[in-house]
Amino acid sequence: MAEPTFRYHPDPLASGSALRTDHVCRVCGMDRQIRYQGPVYGRQPDSLCLHCIQSGAASLALSISGGGDGDSDMAAMFSDAVDVPDDVPLSVVEEITRRTPGFAGWQQEAWLYHCGDGAAFLGSAGYRELEAYPEALAMLCADHQRYGWSPADTEEFLRGLDRTGEPTAYLFRCLHCNTSLASWDIG
Q1: What is the pLDDT of residues 150-164, one digit of tens each?
Q2: Which of 2, 5, 129, 156 is the most buried (most CB within 10 A)?
Q3: Where are the alpha helices (DSSP H) in 37-177?
C-alpha cells in the first residue's frame, strides 16, 4: 500500500517527522514501514502510522478525556493551532491539527498560514538553508523588529540559526502564491 500524502506536510520523512522502519501501528494494528515520530497532544502511542493520521483515526483513538462529565473527550492533535488568522477556515485548521503529521520544536511549534490557508511545512532550516529564501529571512527580521531587537542583534541571531541545533528556523511555503515563510525557536 502506498504511503499517504499530506497537503500541508509534503515530506514527513525528509522533515524528520517520520522514520522508515518496520512496525505495527497501535491504532490500526497493521504492519507498516513508516512510523510517525512527531508530537502527539493526546494519549501517547508507542507506534503510529501515517495512514491513521491521514484518515483521522489516530486523532480519535488517541483522544483524551476533558474531565468533568466524561462526555467531553478532546481529539488528539499533532500540532497546535496558535495565531490562526481569521480568514483560515476551521476545516483547514482541523486538517492541519488532526490529520497532518506535526513537527517537533524546542518549545511550542506553530504552523504558519498565508493566503487564507495553511502553509506547507518544509522542515527545519539554519541560516545557510534560509539564504535561498529571502522572503523567509525578511519575515524573521520583521519578527525580531516587533520584539525591539536591533538590526545588529537580529543579524547575529539569524546567522546563528542551525538546522539541527538551536536556535533553529522552520521553513514553510504558501500553497497559493509560493511565498516562503519561516518561524524560529530556541530551547
Answers
A1: 999 999 999 999 999
A2: 129
A3: 50-55, 57-61, 90-98, 127-130, 134-146, 151-159
The one-letter amino acid code at 128 reads R
Write down the number of H helices and E strands in the chain.
7, 9
Backbone torsions φ then ψ of 52, nearest 5 degrees? -70, -30
* Exposed e or buried b per residue across 143-174, where buried means at least 16 C-beta atoms within 10 angstroms of its C-beta: ebeeeeeeeeebeebbeebeeeeebbbbbbbb
Helix (H), strand (E) at residue 22: strand 18-24
pLDDT tens profile 9-64:
999 999 999 999 999 999 999 999 999 999 999 999 999 999 999 999 999 999 98
Q: Are 50 and 36 in contact (CB under 8 A)?
A: yes
Pairing of strands 180-185, 168-173: antiparallel
Q: Which residues of 50-77 are buried (b: 16+ CB within 10 A; e: fewer)?
A: bbbbbeebbbebbbeeeeeeeeeeebbb
Is the model's pLDDT at 145 over the cut of 70? yes
Report the alpha-carbon angle 85-158-82, nearest 5: 20
